[in-house]
Write a structure and sequence with these properties.
alpha/beta; 292 residues; Xyl_isomerase-like_TIM-brl; 11 helices; two-stranded antiparallel ribbon; single chain; isomerase
């Protein structure tokens, strides 16, 4: 196997702000970057006018490109019909920003897709994703759901109900390993038609966990990135670990991505650890070892 995919890094994993994070990503060997675009300096309502061109020019000057923006609004995802109009509007603005910055992928969590396809929560999520999918498609872009909260087969059945592939998949193998115990190799094959971006992350499942404790659920609790990072660091139920130290079978995972014809980014995400910069550098080396 010889990988040809470009290597990306999530700038926010360095925890030093966008510009410094971009420099660190370049120094670590990235070819592209993913950036959170929800709040602060990257909020579409803040990054306006000439600021957008300035950022794009700066990224170009480093010899980088943007693999995706992260538009994850946390909370209950799109489970709450009453909250959805404002979340949909913000998601559209993030999609607009992505296209202006030169990428056509925005990744997100939408909340756990309920097993009961007749539930009001399922209907709310379906309606929101339908609207966002149509909008993304109009921009020749993708709103990509991150894997993990539910088994791949159930996510596929949900995506199959939508009229476009404007809502697609950001595949994260570690989330599947850590939370649902789903097989990421089979997951790649199941979701192959929808995968437009991937995260390269590793993890270990210590015991069975309720996905609602991780990703929240309407009427249960809200999703919080800080809470997920705490859980992934504690190792009580699951633990995020450096690449190659966990349960993701990367040779098989990369082979599965090749099998489905995936040519997009392999984007490194590191949400925990005392020295994420060193972990990220090692991750770049780990992926390069598959390039032959």
């Amino acid at each position: 196997m010889k990988l040809n995919n470009k290597i990306g890094i999530i700038v926010d994993s360095f925890g030093v702000g966008v510009k410094e994070g971009l420099k660190k990503a370049k120094a670590a060997g990235a070819e592209g970057v993913q950036i959170y675009a929800v709040s602060g300096e990257m909020d579409p309502a803040v990054l306006i006018g000439p600021k957008r061109k300035e950022l794009r020019d700066y990224i170009d000057s480093l010899g980088l490109e943007i693999s995706a923006l992260c538009g994850d609004l946390a909370g209950h995802g799109f489970q709450d019909a009453a909250a959805n109009p404002s979340k949909i509007e913000k998601s559209k603005r993030i999609l607009d920003l992505a296209v202006e910055l030169g990428t056509n992928v925005v990744t997100t969590h939408i909340g756990i897709v309920p097993e009961d396809t007749n539930s009001p929560i399922y209907a709310a999520m379906q309606q929101a994703c339908e609207e966002l999918g149509v909008y993304a498609k109009s921009l020749n872009a993708y709103f990509a759901i991150e894997t993990g909260p539910e088994p791949a087969a159930h996510l596929k059945s949900f995506l199959d109900t939508l009229t476009t592939n404007g809502v697609s998949v950001n595949f994260d193998p570690a989330n599947m390993v850590m939370v649902t115990g789903d097989d990421p190799i089979q997951g790649v094959k199941t979701l192959g038609d929808y995968i437009v971006h991937t995260h390269v992350k590793d993890g270990i499942r210590r015991r069975s966990v309720d996905p609602r404790d991780v990703y929240g659920f309407l009427g249960y609790d809200k999703m919080s990135h800080e809470k997920i990072a705490e859980m992934a660091a504690s190792g009580a139920g699951f633990e995020e670990v450096p690449l190659g130290a966990g349960s993701v079978d990367f040779p098989a995972y990369f082979a599965a991505l090749q099998e489905i014809g995936y040519t997009g980014y392999l984007t490194i995400e590191r949400e925990v650890g005392d020295n994420p910069e060193e972990d990220i550098r090692q991750a770049v080396g780990f992926i390069r070892s598959f390039r032959g």
